[in-house]
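Handoff note, outgoing to incoming analyst
You'll be picking up this chain. Sequence as last confirmed:
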Amino acid sequence: MTELCDLTAVALRRMIGAKEISPVELLKSCKKRIRAVNPTLNAVTATIWPRAEKEAKAAEAAVMRGDYLGPLHGLPLGVKDLDDAEGLPTTFGSPIHKKNFPKKDSLMVQSCRRAGAIVVGKTNVPEFGAGANTNNPVWGPTGNPFDPKRICGGSSGGSAVALAASMLPLCTGSDTGGSLRIPAAFCGVVGVRGSPGLVPSERRGLGWTPLSVIGPMGRNTADASLMLSAIAVYDSADPFSHPSGSHFAELRPVDLSSLRVAVTEDFGFCPVDTRIRKTFQDRVKRFRSAFGTCVEATPDMGEADRAFEVLRAVSFLATHKENYEKRRHLLGPNLIANYEEGLRYSASDVAWAHAEQTRIFRRVQEFHQEFDLILSPTVSVPPFPWTQLYMEKINGKRLRTYFHWLALTYAMTLTGHPSISIPCGLEPTGTPFGLMVTGPHQSDRFTLETAHALEQLFAGDKVMRRPLPGIKKLSRR
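Most recent structure output, in case you need it:
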């Protein structure tokens, strides 16, 4: 039997506005599901039930009075544990910040609250968001809802799992090398990496670099777009922020048959597991005819690996100098590896990396003059056991860094193009397969609308439609 918490955010918001359900009832349903499955999955960490229940009652009263209701009115929200939410700890998954209780919300959480969302709790992350295995010394590991012994991805892993298991209808996320898209792919939900500045962030240590963005996660593109309609605002704290002038709550239909599409298994440089290649090839055969043109092609990505490695390391130097020099003994191996890599680079290396990033961007822009869209796998490998910190080899070949298996997503991180992961059935190990949809520069609305059209196409195909985890197997109640 479907519970309230299983419904989409769009449906729930409509029902709240129509007085068909109460925010109080919805919160109770989410609380029941969290208590049932979170002991198995460990996606939701710190919670704030008394405040959330008080806010749900206030949201119910506002509906009954006929007050103006924001786009997220009455919807429970999970906040990634890299984002501040007043009343909850922001630990970053690190013992250094275990008792860190911020006094105010981050910009994104402020926007969500203004739109009527009710913050329920925090969602789990890797330590400081480094790597794509959501496991840290404060909260422990988060399991994949399709197989709790395997990773859920990261760094927005707790958010993706909370959505997939219907613990919460909306969650926040962030993305540098793929942290919105990878967990979305592994868990069968949607992660939206928008253009830098679309959702303003005050927390980037290097505000003038476009690698890191924050954004929405939902069970489908319509839900993620609903949340984006509340958080895509201008704020002067972010150098990249700009008035978008776009409205994301209503997605317009897209005629897929009018589109010119490039499909690529590896962007010409990414290591990809043979099972993922075969799954992608199968999916392309199934949806190819929906497009006007759909051919194998890839932009010239130059030395994307090296450029990303340098730029990523520089951001760690900017953010973690004090932690490394004064509290190194409290840092995990991923943090230490990233910081020490940064120490090895010269100013010449950094200048080269920025120049190479620019060259790659311009080549991808030129590529988009021929193609409206690029489709690729989201992740290079199926999810592996969470006891394994990262992937060391693909198809028997050793990887160049601990995050090299994230190359498919950081390829598009480098260029700053809007990039979305949507579910596209299962891969051979029985966990979700994610399809990455990348649009032209600053084409956030078009990319969302195209992803939504693809989602609708996949819904009618039993192989490609969004898979659902077995809630009964996950439940301890």
